[in-house]
Design a protein that fits this description.
By secondary structure, the chain is an all-beta fold. It has strands at 3-7, 10-13, 18-25, 33-39, 46-52, 56-59, 68-73, 78-83, 92-99, 116-117, 121-126. The strands form 2 sheets. Strands 2, 4, 5, 6, 9, 10 and 11 form a 7-stranded mixed sheet that branches. A 4-stranded antiparallel sheet has the order 1-3-8-7, with no helix packed on it.
């Protein structure tokens, strides 16, 4: 059974940092793509970043480049999202999700392309 468990969310002041983790189980970590998404109240879920065994790392939101960094530890089957210089507009539930089948992050066409999702972790940035 595929499982993704996010952790690391919380309440932080503007300008602070958080590191989210996405621990994966139930599949081999040699042909995968794991994406980070976020959903703010009243807004659609949006892709943040993706890391794939096929084409590396892609960031989907230009304004996050330089503040958010995605990385992975394949031995631990864990993907991370390091978030620095957080802003109140970063407040959202953050999800990770996995796509199988030689998925290429650069060809991202929407959250529906992903196969399994974690339960999400709340990130709240106070001003």
């Amino acid at each position: 059974e595929v499982q993704l468990v996010e952790s690391g969310g919380g309440l932080v002041q503007a300008g602070g940092s958080l590191r989210l983790s996405c621990a994966a189980s139930g599949f081999t970590f040699d042909d995968y793509a794991i994406g980070w998404f976020r959903q703010a109240p009243g807004k659609e879920r949006e892709g943040v970043s993706c890391i794939s065994s096929s084409d590396g790392i892609t960031y989907y939101i230009d304004s996050l480049k330089g503040r958010f960094t995605t990385s992975s530890d394949n031995a631990k089957k864990t993907v991370y999202l390091q978030m620095n210089m957080l802003k109140p507009e970063d407040t959202a539930i953050y999800y990770c999700a996995v796509a199988f089948g030689h998925y290429h992050c650069a060809g991202y066409g929407g959250p529906s392309e992903y196969d399994d999702w974690g339960q999400g972790t709340q990130v709240t940035v106070s001003s």
